[in-house]
Design a protein that fits this description.
The chain is an all-alpha fold. 54% of the residues lie in helices and 3% in strands. The chain has four domains: 31 residues; 46 residues, no CATH class; 115 residues, no CATH class; 227 residues, Hydroxylamine Oxidoreductase, Chain A, domain 2 (Up-down Bundle). It is built from 22 helices and four strands. The chain starts with a helix and ends in a 5-residue tail after the last helix.
């Protein structure tokens, strides 16, 4: 064998050896990822849980073992322990435990966070059960759709299955059985058996409870997306969302860290958590996202939130990590102008017309049994929200084409004609309608001002060689 051939053989053997090392490393690394090592010290109760569940439910055991809880020695029993007689508790392997871990349980260690969460709108998400949205879900659509739709974001009241005597039905070891229409459920405003509100797992996802997961925009997107509140989609199209996607791809941004302060620990891009919950250089983190919101964009007509000036200053503080005061001022002027445009041109006049029709007796008390009720609902609940939310988060397509354009079309081409038809023979209702449509902002429906028409015609002649007809 020539010297050259020997060199080639040695090179090939070296490559094969390197590949074998990489394969072994990958296999061992995979094992470590799938079955993390438990912490050095656990309570006797939790050690027993872990040893059993790493065989019965290895996924859950591995997720927990890879958590910060595990590294601190906080195990299964510390979270799931129950007192004898608790409604959702039962005696398992000689100890009382509960299936549902509530904010009250988490609050044993995280009392300040629980207190912040309790006063948030998130905690009150389950109040949808008595709203117009719930009528639409429960009655018009059907309960099964509501159980796996509305309630999985808003939360449901956790109920128990009943035996023939009307008592809580129980399975092995006396374990209480849940009403499957209400469980499983990780809705943010879940109404728990112990009376507490909410589910920490809605954002933090049991059993790993990774802080990085709760800071990713996708975690919020579980609920904040879709035609009536598309914050996830608006974020993705905004410069903030684009910057985040690029930063993650290029490894420029970490979602880890105890404090995670914008402008200090990271600066490539903000996420939902950055603006609404995470710490800044001058304010701590909060589990009440409403602490930085100055408009409520959910209802038919937007209103400033309580103590809105202070809340706006808190949000401005977040913005100041990357933007100048002049830029922030200009953004809020643009945002406020869109909200006020929607309120004054469409929402308030539309509300007046709907009230006049009800007073005239042409609408029944039953919601959604007249076409105009659907039209009005789409206008404020879908298009109107998109218009306002797009403006708040700098999403131009949602402000305009998914928002203002569709609001205008719905208002002029559907809502007003339907209202006029229903108002025939009802002078008071028609008077309100004509007063609304006679205001300056709607006067264009009677014909464009000659000067405006000439400007349009001149533009089209020069650019396209066409006349405005």
């Amino acid at each position: 064998m020539t010297l050259e051939a020997k060199k080639i053989v040695v090179a090939l053997l070296s490559v094969l050896f390197l590949l074998s090392l990489l394969v072994v490393a990958w296999i061992e690394g995979g094992k470590q990822r799938l079955v993390p090592q438990p912490p050095m010290e656990l309570t006797v109760e939790s050690e027993g849980c872990y040893e059993c569940h790493k065989e019965k439910t290895p996924g859950i055991a591995a997720q927990w073992a890879d958590s910060r809880h595990a590294r601190l020695g906080v195990g299964c029993y510390e979270c799931h322990q129950a007192k004898e007689g608790e409604v959702d508790g039962w005696k398992h392997e000689g100890r009382w435990i509960a299936t549902v871990v509530t904010p009250g349980d988490c609050g044993r260690c995280h009392a300040a966070i629980q207190a912040e969460f309790e006063k948030s709108h998130h905690a009150k998400g389950g109040q949808i059960l008595g709203s117009l949205d719930n009528v639409l879900g429960e009655i018009v659509e059907g309960p099964a759709a509501t159980n796996l739709g509305c309630r999985q974001c808003h939360g449901s009241k956790i109920e128990f299955a009943k035996d023939p005597s009307g008592q809580i039905a129980r399975g092995n070891e006396g374990k209480p059985l849940f009403d499957t229409a209400t469980w499983p459920n990780s809705g943010i405003g879940r109404i728990n058996p112990d009376g507490t509100l909410g589910s920490c797992g809605a954002c933090h996802s049991r059993h790993r409870f990774a802080v990085a997961m709760s800071r990713r925009p996708e975690s919020c997107g579980k609920c904040h997306m879709g035609p009536d509140h598309p914050q996830a989609e608006i974020y993705e199209e905004s410069k903030h969302g684009i910057a985040f996607a690029v930063a993650v791809d290029q490894g420029l941004m970490s979602l880890e860290g105890e404090e995670w302060i914008v402008g200090r620990d990271y600066n490539a891009a903000p996420t939902c958590a950055t603006c609404h919950m995470s710490a800044t250089r001058t304010q701590p983190s909060t589990h009440d996202p409403g602490e930085r919101i100055s408009w409520t964009l959910r209802p038919e007509v937007s209103k400033h939130t309580e103590d809105w000036e202070r809340k706006r200053e808190r949000m401005r503080d977040v913005c100041s990590a990357c933007h100048t005061p002049d830029w922030i001022d200009a953004h809020y002027r643009q945002y406020d102008a869109v909200v006020e445009l929607y309120n004054e041109k469409f929402a308030k006049p539309g509300g007046r017309i709907m009230a006049a029709l009800r007073e005239a007796g042409v609408l029944t008390p039953t919601p959604f049994d007249e076409e105009i009720e659907w039209t009005w609902y789409f206008l404020w609940h879908h298009e109107g929200r998109r218009m306002r939310m797009g403006a708040s988060m700098m999403g131009p397509d949602y402000t305009q084409w998914h928002g203002a354009f569709e609001v205008g079309h719905r208002f002029y081409e559907e809502f007003i004609p339907q209202a006029r038809g229903l108002g025939e023979g009802k002078p008071q209702a028609l008077a309100v309608l004509e007063e609304v449509m006679g205001s300056p902002e709607h006067a264009w429906k009677k014909g464009l001002d000659p000067k405006v028409r000439e400007q349009l015609s001149d533009f089209y002649r020069k650019k396209y060689g066409q006349e405005v007809r």
